[in-house]
Structure formats: C-alpha cells, structure tokens
Design a protein that fits this description.
Strand order of the largest sheet of chain A: 3-6-9-1-10
Number of strands of chain A: 13
Shape of chain B: elongated
Helix content of chain B: 40-55%
Structural class of chain B: alpha+beta
Strand content of chain A: 15-25%
Largest interface: A-B, 17 and 18 residues
Oligomer: heterodimer
Number of domains of chain B: 4
CATH class of the largest domain in chain A: Alpha Beta
Largest sheet of chain B: 6 strands, antiparallel
Distance between the termini of chain B: 20 Å
CATH architecture of the largest domain in chain A: 3-Layer(aba) Sandwich
Number of domains of chain A: 2
Largest sheet of chain A: 5 strands, parallel
Shape of chain A: globular
C-alpha cells in the first residue's frame, strides 16, 4: 500500500510510482479501446463471481470507474452494496481503503492529521482513510454532515488540504459510498452539494430467487471475496481512463445530452434540476459506457441509458411530484423519453 | 423570405392566376381590379398575422373579417336603395345570379356578377391559404382554384380555354415548389433522397424535380387536351372549339319552322342554280339529340374553315361533284343552307363547320341572325344517292357521334316502342325497317297539317302517331327518326328547305313555306341518308332509294290495307358505282372508329398514368436510394429512409427513438435472420450518424438486406400490400422533424 503523503507545495507522487513512472506511463498510453472491453470483461467476470445476477449495477460501477467518477450505492441493508464495492477494489490491484462512517467519525479521520514527531521535532502528516485508489465509504449517511463534507474537496479535486498543505491523491481515485435510504433510522441525508459530486447513484436491488440460491451455495462453503484475484492494476486502469477520453461524441449527441439535462431544469415535477457538472459527468459516463460496449463513439442510447443513474440523485422532486408519489427516477426517465432525438446527423 | 411567406405568396399567385378563368364568361373585366385588390390585401394581412405567429383560428377569423369589410366597400360602390349593406349585398348576388341565368357568355356587364366573382375569388384565397398554410396540406391547395376552373368548364358548359388551364397548373406548381423548398430548408426530405444537410442546399433538387415532373406533365395534358374532343354536354349551347375563344349560342332551328310554314304570304327567300339537274334539299341544321323534350341540338365542336372534312360514313369523295350557287334573299339565320353533303363552300364572312353534321354556322359574334341575309355563295357538294336495291340490304352503321345519334331514351313510352315493333314487323334488314317506317308515315292514315294537337316531347309524338295523326314535317321527321332509332339505326333530324320550285333549267326558287324537316339515317357504307316521311302533298315523291323497285311482300304484309300515297319514282336508276355495304363496313367507318379508339386509348393511358404516378415516384425514389452511391453515411441514411417509408407504406408506424431502438422494435416483428439484418442496418445508421467515420465496408450488401427486410415487413393482407404499391402512404405523409 503506497500513500502519497509528502509535504510539498507541488504536485507530487509517491516515490515508488515516480521511480517507474516512465515505463508504466508508456504501457498505459498504448492501451486502446479494445483493451477496455477485454480488461473490463475480466474485471466484470471477477465481480460477477461474487455478486450474482447484478450485471447492470456492475457495469455502471465499471463505467463510473472509467469515467473518473464516484459511485453512490443506495439500497436497503444487506443486498450487497459493500460487497460490490469491495469486490471492485479486489479486482484491481491497487490500494483499497474502507471507511466505516459512524456518527462519531471525525473529518480528520478521513483527510489525515499532522502530528508532532518528537524525534524529528517536526510535524508529520498522518494520511487519513481517503488516501487510497479506491475508497469504500460504508454507510456514508450515518456520519455527521461535517464529516461528510470532509469528503467534498477530495472527491472533486482529488487532493487533500491539511494545515495549508495540499496533498495530491493517487490516480485512479474512486469513492464508492454506500448508503441506506434516508428514511432509515439514524441517518443524515447527504447534502446536495455532496450528492452532486457523485457521478452516479445505483441501486442493487434484491437478487432473483435463482441468484439467491446460487449465493447460498457459494457463500455457504467459502468466501468468494477472499478468492477473488485481481484482474488488473491501477496503472492499467489509468491507461484505460485515458483511452476512454478518446471516445467520439458527435455534435448531435452533445446536443441531445444538453437537451436531456435541460429537461430536468424545466420540468414541473422537479424543484431542482441537474447542474452543469451533471452535464459534464453524463458526457464522461456516456463515453465510458460506449467504450465498455466496445464502441468508439457515443450513441444517444448511451446517454438515455445512463441519464437516470447520473441525474436522478442530483435533482429534487417538486411537492406535486412527491404528493403524486412519483420517484425522481420515474420523473427523470420519463423526461428522457420526452426529449426528441434528432433523426439526422 | 420566411417559409410561411413563401407559401402565402404561392397561394396568392395561384389565386391571381385563376382570377382570369371567369373572364370568358363576361365582357366586363373590371372585376379583376377589385378581386386583385381583395386578394392582395388578404395576402398582406395574412403574412403579417403569420409572422406574428398568431394561431390559425385567429388568422382565419381576421381573413373573414377583412373579406367582409372589403366586400362591404365594394358593394357600397354600387348604388342601392338605402337598405342595410348585407341586404344590398345579397340583392347584388341575386341580381348577379339572375343575370347569369338569363345571359349567354359573354355576359353584359353587371354589378351583381362582378360582386359574385370578387367574393368567390376572395373565398378561394382564404380556403387555399387555409389548406396550404394553416392545415399544412399544400397538395390539397389545388382544390379551391380547380373549383374556380371547373365551374365555367363543367357547370356552364363553356370551354375555358388552354390559358385558364395553364394558369391553374402554374399556380399549383408554384405552391408545390414553395412547399418543396420549405421542406428542404427544414432539413426534411428532398424528392429522391434524404440527404438535405443544410439550409437550401437541396433546393436545386426540388427545382429539378419540379421541372422534371411538372413541365412534361403540363405539356402532356395540354397536348392531350387538344387531342381530346370537347365533351358533349347537354344543353342548347353550342361550344366552339379550335381556339375561337368563347361559345356561340345558337337558336333552336325548329322554332322558326312552324312560324315560317304558316306565313300568310309565301315569299321567295332564296334561289339556287346547280350545274346538274334535280332539286336540292338545302340543309341548315341538324338535331341529333332525342329525349323526353324532343329533338335538340347538342354542343358541337366547331372547326374554322370552308373546306369540309370527310363525309361521315362515306369512304373518300365518292360520287361526282355538284356545283351550286345559292342566293339568299330576305331571310335571316346563322345557319348556312347547304345541299348534303357539302365539300367546299365559297362564301364571304367568318364560318365554322361541325365535322359530324357538316352544318355550317356563322362565326360572327354580332348580328349572327342576319348572317345569311342577302348572301350569295357557291358550294361544291356530293349527292348521297344510294342504289335502291343495294340499300335494302344495308345495315345500320356507327357514326362518330353515335353516343348521341344512336341513343334511345330509356323513358321512351312503351306504346311508341310497340308501334315501332308493329310497323317494322317482317322487315329483315335495317334498311327495310327504315323503308317500312317511311311507308307507314306516308300512308293515308296520316294527314299533313300545320295545326297538330298541342303537346311537346313524347306527348307530341304520341298525339301524332297514335291519336290525331295530323301534323307537319316536324312531326313526320321526328316520328321517323324516333322509330328508326328505336330499331337500332342512328338518326338525326335535319332542318332546312325543300328543293322548291323550278323556274328555269337548273334554277330553283325556294320560298318561306318550303321550310322543312326530315330524318337522316346512318347506314354502313352510305353514311347519312335522307328519308322523306312527310306526305307527298307537301314533299312530292320520296327519294328514289327509299322505295324499292319491286314492292316486296313484307311491305304488303305490313300495311295490307293502305295504298301508297304516291307512286314510287318510275326512274329505275342503274346500280350505282358506289361501294357495296359489306366492303364498306370497315373502310367507311374506319376513320372515326380509329380516331375514337385512339382517343379512348389516350384517355385510358392518361388515367393509367395518373394512377401509376404515385407508384412510379415511389419506385424511382426507392431505386435512387438503393443505388449505393455517395458517402457511406448518406448511403446508410438513404437505406434508413427507405425502410421508414416502407413501414409507413405498409400502414405501420415508424417508432420514435434512436436507430438502435427503432431497429430492435422493428426487428421484433421479423424473422430472426431478417431481424439480424435489421439490427445491422440500425447499427450502420448509428455509426453513420454518431461515429467519427463510417467505413464503407459491408455497405454493398445493404440493398439486398433492405429488400429482405422489406419482404419481412410486408403485411399478410394482399390488399394492404397492393395499396402500399399503388398508393404509397409515405408520399403523402409529412415527416415531423
């Protein structure tokens, strides 16, 4: 486990990575979109051996990983939220930290703290739980808002500032937070600003009976998570992320994407629409999804398919929609179908 | 120019062009000024309102209001009696309608007619605009102007002329072109393919297509229009064709007949000198139409000139020419008295002839009633004198106007039919039947009198034939023509003069009481043959050919008790050198029949062409789309558009969504292999639209794949498949963008 915790003003990396950066970089640069499908296929197979029958959720998680986003997994306890997060971390040979959010968790537990070293007579930075490639924030809505906010800067800017010093986080960096629905007891709803920083929110849902039966069999005899082998490493993922950036988005699709986001702002059923950040993240997610599907271009179907996952957690339903018992997911997916798709290039 | 402006401009031009259509109806063209003012004001108001993006209902209401206001202004220009303006306006309408009913075209100026024309043109503009702009159905834009075109053409039986047709066609073409360029500007389809990528880039396609379809279509219709005969329309009006512009209204020649016959003083009205012996029946008019109201004129297609065409039913110029000089005295008519069959007339003035009846009519528009007064002219004619023995074997022929001259009214009273059957019982050939009828009418049962029982139509015939048996030439001629027609011989009633009195060698004098009517019967090989059923007291001996040399037994059995009122002509003419009936059946009637067939074929072809047009356009569009030429993305888009049109043609709905969703939605209806092809096409479309580049690999199979999908999409119902071919819906649906 390597951490970048050097005190410096500039953009610094850990020594280990700096050492071999040249050749690793070149290897990563040569990754193409074809590698996205093969590498991610292996990762997916690995995760699927742990969580059966949740292909859409897994694909979305991989999409967010490739799109340099953060994932919010929201569902009732016990459906495998943490399992998904851990399996994803295991499948990639990189640093994985797990933060169990509790009401007494302090912000410094996340970011780290500078302690005085008697020997060196100097302050030394003890990195917090955020310093990892994949951070699993378990039950994030059980922590106090103050602690939740500590995640803010690191998630968006991929850096941590403690006592006036900025520490860069190592790439790839992804926060997978799980939370229980806010109606549950003992939860603090995630602030809107923070929700906006998550690229996508997914629900895992109950397994199908057959998947549940398979689960009983496998989990009864051994721990599949323990046997899960890493299919790739962080450097490869970095290369893949770079490759995904080359996915082509035609003007028509950009136009469509903006229209979709715009629709959330003009809808009567929504009190708060999606932010421009959401537009950007929807674009990135669409690129990643297209790459995962083996395409070098984004199609409107990618945008439409991801819109609910990317937009629904950012918007707020209007009172009318709430009274009509319409969930934001319904509202957003209906908005997406209402946006007319240009029939031409 | 905005797209809405373009359509309004096109509609305006169409209505302005169509405003010329009623011009032949009236001698007063001042309605044009008001109509144009009205249409232009309406167009300006409409343009403003459309630009302000007001609702269609509001625009329509404003148009109606403007129309009403302007009509108020126009009607108030006509002095009234101080009644409210709407009453005044309605009175003007009533006045105009009455004027139209009482006047023949061209009508004299009338304020009512003017206000009617202006109102109708205003309404036509509003309705056209409603269809073209508000309802977005430019194709229907032809209907209101076409109504304006059709009213004089059909309703009033007036030849509207080629110019009016061109006006209508050009206006419509304008609307279509305006719509076409709007569509292209809106990124919708051009005609042959769907690759309009920007504003106006495909406008040339529309223009080209408009030229390609419109110009030949216009030319074809114009040429065909010249080739087709004017439709025979009921009514006393006689249209004149061959670009004489407008129609001539003719008087009923029979009206004068009785009046002239009853003239107290028998004055000489004309003299004629012929270069061959024998008196001449001078024929003026011919009445081919027979129905419940009696014998009438029909609308004729007149030709200019004094050299007459082929004699109907007679092959070539058989027989020797007779030259006659006729001097008319104090007698007025628009018909030129001529011996039958005239070949060439040397006469001063403007004259036209009807090729069917060889009747000549004055072409002068004014003073036509006096056209022949104090006129001297020379005529070359051929005598139609069939050989009596040959004629008895003759059969009825089919003249060019047989739809009129051979038509027996279905409501002909049964007692008349029965009498005819009784009279012609025992006669074998058509000619024998005709002879029997003439013999019957010339029998002593009938008395010549200019005071028959009153009555008209069938009633007059029944009175004459079954009750009173008193009448003059008109009754005799009408009866014979009716009875001969009943037994299947084409007939018509000729009106003219008896040969008159011989004064010198070959000079004859015709007096007013010689005015006469006689039947003409059409026999194959002989053409129109004159018969004479009017008794000898008035007419002398019947024509030689109508009395067989040897009285046959049939005649005896027919009327055993009656004595011929006059002896048959003693002269036994030698068998004429004329053609025999058998050989002539084809050659004599060949001409008109051949023409009839040609015209029929022409009409048939035209109808077929019109019916096949949508299928042809659709087929052309399909083959243009499936050529596989052009940019890969364009090829794929063409195929996609073709699939969309196919689905619409088959009555389906083109799903909404991305190519992929559409592909899977349609693929679910197809067989697995076709479904795979469908998703492959959908994928190519997706790549073409959204990927950076589309590799041209695999595009060669696209046409075959498309055809396979087409077959897969075809509905089971044969009727729906057929409809998709004949009336492809995709041509008529407007695609939303």
């Amino acid at each position: 486990m390597t951490l970048s915790h050097q005190r410096s003003e500039g953009h610094q990396r850990s020594e280990g990575h700096q050492r071999s950066e040249g050749d690793r970089r070149s290897a990563a640069d040569h990754l193409s979109l074809g590698d996205v499908v093969s590498v991610m296929g292996q990762v997916r197979t690995g995760i699927e051996s742990v969580i059966e029958g949740k292909r859409p959720a897994i694909d979305l998680a991989l999409t967010v990983l490739l799109a340099e986003g953060h994932l919010l997994v929201e569902d009732v306890p016990g459906v495998g939220k943490t399992m998904l997060a851990k399996a994803l971390g295991r499948s990639i040979d990189c640093s994985v930290r797990r933060l169990q959010f509790t009401p007494d968790l302090l912000p410094s537990d996340i970011t780290g703290v500078a302690v005085f070293n008697q020997e060196s007579r100097d302050f030394e930075f003890k990195p917090g739980g955020i310093f990892a490639n994949i951070v699993v924030g378990d039950e994030i809505n059980r922590a106090s808002p103050k602690t939740q906010s500590a995640l803010l800067e690191s998630m968006e800017e991929r850096q941590v500032s403690v006592d006036g010093t900025t520490y860069l986080l190592e790439l790839p960096f992804m926060v997978i937070a799980t939370q229980n629905p806010i109606e549950m007891e003992g939860t603090y709803p995630l602030p809107e600003a923070q929700r906006d920083r998550f690229m996508a929110r997914i629900a895992i849902g109950y397994p199908t009976p057959s998947a549940e039966l398979d689960m009983l069999e496998s989990h009864g005899s051994y721990d599949p998570l323990a046997e899960l082998q890493a299919a790739t490493d962080g450097e490869t993922i970095k290369g893949l992320i770079e490759a995904v950036k080359g996915v082509y988005v035609s003007p028509a699709v950009r136009h469509y994407l903006v229209q979709v986001v715009n629709a959330t702002r003009n809808s009567r059923d929504l009190r708060l629409g999606a932010s421009p950040r959401a537009t950007l993240q929807l674009l990135r997610a669409s690129r990643a999804w297209a790459a995962l599907s083996g395409r070098d271009y984004v199609s409107p179907d990618d945008v439409a398919g991801l819109a609910t996952a990317v937009l629904a957690h950012r918007v707020l339903p209007s009172t009318d929609a709430q009274l009509a018992r319409r969930t934001v997911d319904d509202v957003v997916s209906q908005l997406v179908t209402s946006v007319h798709l240009p029939d031409r290039r | 120019m905005r797209s809405s402006d373009r359509l309004i401009l096109a509609s305006t031009v169409a209505v302005l062009l169509i405003s010329f259509t009623p011009q032949p109806l009236t001698s007063d063209s001042s309605y044009l000024g008001q109509a144009w003012l009205l249409v232009i004001v309406l167009a300006a108001v409409t343009t403003g309102l459309r630009r302000a993006r007001l609702t269609a209902g509001f625009v329509f209401a404003t148009q109606v209001a403007v129309l009403t206001a302007l009509l108020f202004v126009f009607s108030s220009l006509v002095p009234g009696r101080g009644e409210p303006w709407y009453e005044h306006y309605l009175q003007l309408w009533g006045q105009g309608i009455e004027h139209m009913q009482t006047q023949a075209a061209p009508m004299t100026p009338d304020a009512g007619v003017k206000i009617i024309f202006v109102s109708v043109l205003g309404v036509i503009f509003i309705v056209t605009d409603l269809l073209v702009s508000a309802l977005e159905r430019p194709a229907w834009g032809i209907a209101p102007p076409a109504a304006a075109f059709a009213v004089p053409a059909i309703g009033l039986g007036i030849d509207t002329g080629l110019m009016a047709f061109w006006c209508l066609a050009l206006g419509y073409l304008g609307i279509l072109i305006a719509d076409g360029s709007n569509r292209t500007a809106r990124w919708t389809r051009g005609l042959s393919r769907d690759s309009a990528d920007g504003f106006g880039t495909a406008t040339p396609v529309v223009w080209r297509a408009a030229g390609l379809i419109g110009v030949p279509a216009l030319l074809a219709t114009a040429v065909l229009g010249l080739a087709l005969p004017t439709l025979a329309l009921p009514g006393p009006g006689i249209g004149s064709g061959s670009g004489r512009g407008g129609a001539l209204q003719l008087t009923d020649p029979t009206l004068d007949l009785r009046r002239n016959l009853n003239q107290a003083e028998d004055t000489v009205v004309m003299t004629y000198t012929s270069d061959r012996p024998g008196g001449l029946y001078l024929r003026m008019a011919s009445l081919p139409q027979f129905d419940a109201s009696g014998w009438r004129n029909v609308q004729m297609r007149l030709e200019s000139g004094t050299r007459l065409p082929q004699i109907p039913g007679v092959g070539g110029d058989s027989g020797e020419r007779r030259e006659t000089t006729i001097s008319v005295g104090n007698f007025g008519s628009e018909y030129l008295p001529l011996p039958y069959a005239p070949r060439q007339v040397d006469v001063a003035g403007d004259w036209a002839y009807d090729p069917n009846s060889l009747v000549m009519i004055s072409g002068d528009r004014s003073g036509r009633d006096d056209a022949i007064r104090d006129l001297t002219y020379r005529v070359e004619s051929v005598d139609i004198e069939p050989d009596p023995s040959a004629l008895t074997r003759a059969v009825a022929g089919t003249p060019a106007d047989s739809n009129t001259t051979a038509e027996v009214p279905t409501d002909l009273p049964e007692d008349l039919r029965q009498l005819t059957r009784q009279v012609t019982k025992g006669a074998d050939t058509d000619a024998e039947k005709a002879i029997a009828i003439q013999k019957f009418l010339r029998s002593s049962k009938f008395t010549y009198s200019t005071e028959p029982l009153p009555g008209s139509g069938y009633r007059a015939l029944e009175n004459f034939l079954l009750r009173d048996r008193r009448g003059y030439c008109e009754q005799f001629a009408a009866s014979m023509a009716m009875m001969a027609r009943e037994v299947g011989i084409p007939t018509r009633v000729a009106v003219g003069f008896l040969p008159g009195k011989r004064v010198k060698d070959n000079t004859w004098e015709v007096s007013i009481r010689d005015m006469h009517a006689w039947p003409e019967l059409f026999f194959a090989g002989y053409g129109w043959v004159r018969f004479e059923p009017t008794p000898a007291a008035q007419t002398g001996t019947p024509p030689a050919w109508t009395v067989p040399r040897a009285e046959s037994s049939t005649e005896e059995s027919l009327n055993p008790t009656e004595q011929p009122s006059s002896e048959p002509s003693s002269e036994t003419s030698a068998p004429s050198a004329g053609p025999t009936a058998g050989a002539d059946d084809t050659s004599a009637d060949g001409g008109p029949r051949w023409q009839q067939r040609l015209v029929g074929t022409g009409i048939g072809l035209f109808v077929l062409l019109v019916m096949a047009a949508p299928a042809t356009i659709r087929f052309r569009r399909r083959s243009a789309r499936l050529t596989g030429e052009g940019e890969p993305a364009e090829i794929v888009e063409d195929v996609w558009a073709e699939l969309r049109d196919t689905v619409i043609d088959y009555g389906g709905r083109w799903p909404n969504g991305s190519p992929r969703t559409i592909g899977s939605s349609l693929g679910s209806r197809l067989e697995p292999s076709d479904s795979a092809a469908m998703s492959q096409v959908a994928l190519l479309v997706e790549r073409g639209r959204y990927a950076r580049t589309l590799e041209p690999d695999g595009l060669g199979e696209l046409p075959a794949m498309t055809q396979r999908i087409r077959r897969g999409l075809a509905p089971d119902s044969r009727l729906r498949r057929l409809r998709a071919v004949i009336v492809p819906k995709s041509l008529f649906t407007r695609r939303k963008i």
